[in-house]
Amino acid sequence: MTSPLPFVSTDCLHAIADCYGTPTYVYDKQLISEKFNAYQSAFAGRRHQICYAVKANSNLAVLKHLADLGAGFDIVSVGELQPLTLNHCKNYTLLSAWPRP
Question: What is the pLDDT of residues 60-81, one digit of tens each?
Fold first, then answer.
């Protein structure tokens, strides 16, 4: 069986599951970087800002890594802003669909 994550072996995933139980969420930092950089390359030469929807995954390590790569963040609530402030992410752009009073 091949690993669903190209940079993490199946044996490693089994060891993580044995150690931490299931379900366990494993994120591949290198794969996240590659996918983000593919988007950046696709828009090279054009003014753009790639924003990640915090609603999709608010894992602090993932958000911090995306911020370090230069991602902005799409938020629709104060609850989605909190992980960014807790994580001390700096220099990020927020795209908000909050209704204005």
Answer: 999 999 999 999 888 888 888 8
